[in-house]
Amino acid sequence: MSLQEKVMAEMKAAMRAKDSAKLEALRAVKGAILLANTETSSKDGLTEEEENKLLQKLVKQRKDSAQIYKEQGREDLAEPELQQAEVIEQFLPEQMSEEEIEAEVEKIIAETGASGMQDMGKVMGMATGKLAGKADGKTISTIVRKKLS
């Protein structure tokens, strides 16, 4: 079952349950998928990796918005954003724990022979490619920075 089919099935269930917050998040995902499909030239649609990147982007947007709302003291606006992020995260593959990410980053550092911050780009490139969809880029960056400093 493709991501688009899963989203449509969840949308129908949310409509039946009259869950407006979930429905809003699912509509955003559906819109993003349709937009991405029109932008790609491939007739097959999006690959699983592209779908995961799209979903991660949507989750990141919601979390960033919620953070800004919280900083401005607008909890009433932050809460729906976080709820939408949770709904969208259901479609992402299982996320890795920080310990698992650290172990992978250490392997990559050993493979590349990275010795300091000047090698961060090389390590980040490999890490984001290897951990795509399984870990947040910000978390990867923090761990790489910690290991190389």
From TrEMBL:
Q: Which Gene3D superfamilies match?
A: 1.10.10.410, Uncharacterised protein YqeY/AIM41 PF09424, N-terminal domain (1.10.1510.10)
- Which species is the source of this protein? Christiangramia sediminicola
What lineage is this protein's organism placed in?
Bacteria, Pseudomonadati, Bacteroidota, Flavobacteriia, Flavobacteriales
**What positions belong to coiled-coil segments?**
none
Task: Cite the InterPro entries for this sequence.
Answer: Asn/Gln_tRNA_amidoTrase-B-like, GatB_Yqey_C_2, YqeY/Aim41, YqeY/Aim41_N
TM helices/strands, residue ranges: none
Q: What is this protein called?
A: GatB/YqeY domain-containing protein
